[in-house]
Design the sequence.
C-alpha cells in the first residue's frame, strides 16, 4: 500500500505524521525541537518541493509512506492523485491522509515565517512548539490511519 500524508507545505504536520507512522518518533513521548528537526524534510521544504510526493520510508507492514505539500490546491490535487491511481488500477492501494485538521496557529505562523519568509531562526522555534502542542492529535491521526489500512487489507 502507498500512504501519502499531505498538508499545505509538506514540511511540518505531514512530515511529523509520517515520522510517527514509521517509528521515527516515539508515540509515547512529545518530541523535542531537536527530535523534530532531525526528521528528514521537517522544516526543510522549498518552493521547488511543492507538488512533489517525497518518500519517507517503508513501515513494518511493508507499506510505503510519503509526504506531499499541496499549497492552496487542496482537494484538486487529491482528486488528481486518486484519478491517476484509478487509471492505473491501483486506487485501492493508495491512502491519502490529510493532516491539515491537526495544524494549529503556531504551526501556521511558524511554518510561514520559517519556510515562506525564510526567517528560519525565528519561525522554527514557533513551528516546533506548535508541532509539540499538536503531537497528541498527530498520534491520533496516525492511529486512525493504521486502523483504516488494516481494515482495507482485511477486505481484500
Sequence:
Amino acid at each position: 500500500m502507498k500512504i501519502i500524508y499531505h498538508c499545505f507545505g509538506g514540511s511540518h504536520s505531514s512530515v511529523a505524521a509520517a515520522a510517527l507512522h514509521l517509528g521515527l518518533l516515539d508515540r509515547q513521548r512529545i518530541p523535542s525541537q531537536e527530535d523534530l528537526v532531525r526528521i528528514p524534510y521537517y522544516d526543510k521544504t522549498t518552493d521547488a518541493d511543492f507538488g512533489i510526493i517525497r518518500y519517507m520510508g517503508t513501515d513494518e507492514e511493508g507499506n510505503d509512506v510519503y509526504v506531499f505539500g499541496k499549497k492552496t490546491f487542496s482537494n484538486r490535487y487529491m482528486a488528481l492523485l486518486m484519478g491517476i491511481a484509478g487509471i492505473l488500477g491501483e486506487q485501492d492501494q493508495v491512502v491519502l491522509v490529510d493532516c491539515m485538521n491537526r495544524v494549529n496557529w503556531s504551526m501556521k505562523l511558524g511554518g510561514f515565517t520559517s519556510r515562506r519568509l525564510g526567517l528560519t531562526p525565528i519561525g522554527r522555534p514557533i513551528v516546533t512548539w506548535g508541532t509539540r502542542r499538536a503531537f497528541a492529535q498527530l498520534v491520533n491521526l496516525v492511529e486512525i490511519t493504521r486502523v483504516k489500512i488494516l481494515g482495507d487489507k482485511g477486505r481484500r
Observations:
- The two ends are 12 Å apart (CA to CA).
